[in-house]
Model the fold of this input.
Amino acid sequence: MFQGGADHLDSLNLQGVSVPWTSPLLSHLRILDMHEIYGLGAPTTHQLLTVLMQCPHLSELNIHDCHILESDISRDLPTRLDLPHLRLLVLVDIYPPSSAFSILSRISSPRYELFRLDSSFYTQEHLLVNDVFRNISHITPSLVHLVASAKEVQIFLEDHFCHFLSHPESSGRQLPSLDLLVFGHSPLTVLEWLSKGFGGAMSNIPVVGVELARYSSGEGDPAVAAAIGSFPSTTNMKLCGDYTSIIRYLSTPAVIDGTQHWPLPELSKLTIKSGRYDPNLILEMVQSRYGTTDVDSTRQLPSRLKSLVLYGRNEPWDQHILGRIRDIMGKDHFRFR
Done:
């Protein structure tokens, strides 16, 4: 069938089988799914990009657990393949990972609903985590475009995961507002990649919600708090773990050239869950951001917290301190669960 003589296909799902990658039957596809294609039967990056170039109406590209053989993609191919109808792009466990990056660096679409990049092959290849982020750094412009245009972006790199979710109400804006969920082995590795490498390029894209899940190590590292400061438009934060360094960070403004700069000045909702926190530390943070301990009434303050939710019914919280927090914020703005 793939040698000719058949009509063009609309959808193609390949499960563990190879096809002639130069077949005209591979043109004009709307859906291409590839799973478990290995060895010499796998396509080269040049062959796969050529197929994509011949499918201008492609809406879904889903590649799972496949070899894509490295080849010279500089010949006969444009530097950018515009796929205006592509709404779903999933690249999972492609080997070598550099092939996934080569594909991603070439294709573009303004209509992404879901983008997922998952490269757990790094674990099998025993590459260092830093190598992972170095390898992905050269496609930062493509990732920035994805985050700016997609409704949902998932990036899995070894034991690290970050998830961007665009707010529906922001769809009419020039740039979306985003929620960011980060979890994995080390929060600092992901946050530094986002804030220094990726974040530097996406500084104009407002991340308004940040959730940090529980980690196995490094939660209390002050550098984690400093990395969080790279997302100053954050209004909603959820901490699931012992992030005491972030609570301290939120309590103290930095003084630069005689001017105070509050960390996360627009923060209005804070949820603290599944961590062992000193109640006095929470109280000091609230007092500082509300200005209740200041003798200087002209001191500039950040936005007040509209909601503080603490989970700690099973912890020995001091009820007097909880009462003081409630008095400062008001009973409608403070919840203890």
Observations:
- The mean pLDDT is 76.
- The longest strand covers residues 60-67.
- Residues 166 and 178 are 5 Å apart (CA to CA).
- Residues 187-201 form the longest helix (15 residues).
